[in-house]
Amino acid sequence: MNVKDAINQRKSIRKYLNKQVPEDIIKDLLDAARKAPSAKNTQSHKYFIVKNQDVINELKKEKAFEQPFVYDAPLIIVCCADSKQYPERKNADSSPEDYALIDLSIAASFLVLRATELGLGSVFVAWIYADKVRKILGIPEEYIIPFVLPIGYPAEDPDPRSRKDLDEILF
Question: What is the CATH number of the domain that holds 95?
Answer without folding.
Answer: 3.40.109.10
